[in-house]
Amino acid sequence: MRRWQLLLAGAWLLCAAVGTPDALAQGTPTRIATLQGHESWVMSVAFSPDGRTLASGSIDGTVKLWDIVSRNQRKTLTGHASEVYSVAFSPDGRTLASGSWDHTVKLWDVPSGSLRASLRGHTDWVIAVAFSPDGSTIVSGSEDKTVKLWDTSSGILRTTLQGHAGSVRSVAFSLDARTLASASTDTTVKLWDAASGSLRATLEHTHGVSSVAFSPDGRSLASGSGDHTVKLWDVVSGSLRETIKDASTVLSVAFSPDGRTLASGSVDPAVKLWDAVSGRLRTSCKGHADAVESVSFSSDGQMLASGSADGTIILWSTGIVANTPPSVSVQSPSEGQAFTYPGLDVVVQARDSDGSVTEIRLIHNGSPVSAARGYMRQGSSAPAQQAFAVTLVPGINTLSATAVDDQGAVSAPQTVAISLAVEPAPAFKTYALLVATGDYDTLPDLANPVADIESVDRELREAYRCETHVLRNPTRSQFRAALHALAERQFGRDDQLLVFVTGHGFFSERIQRGYLAFRDSRNPKDDPLYETLLPHADVTEVLEALDCRHVLLVVDSCFAGTLDRTLAMAPRRDVEGDYAQATRSEFLRRKMEYATRRYITAGAKEYVPDGRPGQHSPFTRAFLEALRSFGGTDGILTLEEIHGYLERVVPQPRWGELRGNEPGSSFVLIPSQ
Q1: Side by side, which strands form the sheet with 303-308?
Q2: What tens digit of pLDDT does each residue of 70-104 get?
Q3: Which domains does the chain have, with CATH numbers?
Q4: Maximum Cα interatomic distance, the chain, rounded to a whole number of Å
Q5: Fewer CB near the last or first residue (10 Å), C or N of the chain?
């Protein structure tokens, strides 16, 4: 062991370098400045993304901004009514969030120092704040035992996560925006799905947990606790990778940008640097006179800030050999571009000094986007490139791209804002009669029809604004009544009607007719005249006579294909190409020009599977997949596109025309905006 003493700014600094020469290969930290100005404990410190500014929050109720180059105080932000416990910069560095004893989260404009917004919703003091990687969301943790997610631009509360039994002391987003971590005095760390808010895992300490931090690659999570340990967790599995034992309560943890070093602040008081893989202590530095409440790395990893209960902030030169992170750029679209179609391919390029880009990430409005194509490289000097398929929402859309190299270094994000024009809702309405029979008086019950139809109903109502009517396990007469009631409905000129029926079906070889079965229907062996069943022809005759120009009948039952005795209809494959260059409104006009009387059935003259209990039938599963595509790039789901999803089903579905169908007709569903 080597020891040395440095006297800086009138205070003694003792750093002990521990371990093998390899452990010290990245150099030894030295103190370069002590920042004084707070009148009480410094509870939180954070570097701006460009590394030029440091923010600090204190028990004295103020937030201070410090110039890293001159070491001078730039601004003091006042507005909280009480102690400030946490500060965090937005990814673009223009906004600062602070959490306080006064139960609020405040948002500050960094260039001017002015207060932008006060977020109110917690019922007790706010201890922790953090931004999502694209800056669209703020997360806060509170003494009220909740985690809240807020929309950054509007300040509106999006959701509240409940599950902790104690105060929430720390919150953090993974850099891919998929996972949110929260730490609590209830001795647990909870991992949440950032998109859905569902709880993914609960990780255990033996005492309260003060701090959590994700590694830059998002694979590891560090947690510091009152049980005198730092634990390293596998984020995917939730398993414990390593336990690092400290001499006192650990109050703060932070990863270096390359993910190789973990810094911790503790009560003893000391700033410690650990090998993030092995858990070995590299260096322990003492310069504070009281507990180290917060630690934060600069974006290049070459500087570390520590805030203490002694009221000071120390800036340390880490001695870490900087790994220059990759650079990233959004090639298309460009900033401010406006679109009229929701479907968009986003192309991102990344470069690294040694050509070692391993991952390109894209976040759209706070949610990660899966890559449409793997990244490509033409040579060692060529940039890595990746395309992402994005579905825009009306209004402003934020795209934030980052890249990761093989050493875990993450680029600064590039964010572009684009817009999708809000088109007026279509003038026509779509109605749906949805019928499912799974429970029968005498026939064998089916496991999935009701669940199938409820899923279809939910998609049609929530995603496509359809007006639906659902019949669950109706009798034959109840279905006939609902069917004939359609004849009394007043339809607009271009209104559409979807009739979806699922349940048992039968076929009479003797008279070559197909039938639908309902709750009170009997097996043809016990009903030789098929009086309790309903002929397909009775359904089609009513639909053909309706005063509705666009009608689509979908039947998921055995022998449903016998709606067409010739089984001769096949889907057209060339309609989309005809209108590829048409505007969206013109495309819709052409689609609605001709009267529609079409049907789709789950099979031909054969039995079709109900599927496993608790799951959907194969036919309905494919139909739901079509609905959940939301019409692809143009945001219009056509009958031809539905065909494309269904034609993979075994047995093969059938398509046909009812009387009154006009050539060129279609049926379209428009996702709600």
Answers
A1: 30-36, 312-317, 303-308, 292-297
A2: 999 999 999 999 999 999 999 989 999 999 999 99
A3: 51-265 (2.130.10.10), 327-420 (2.60.40.10), 430-669 (3.40.50.1460)
A4: 105
A5: N
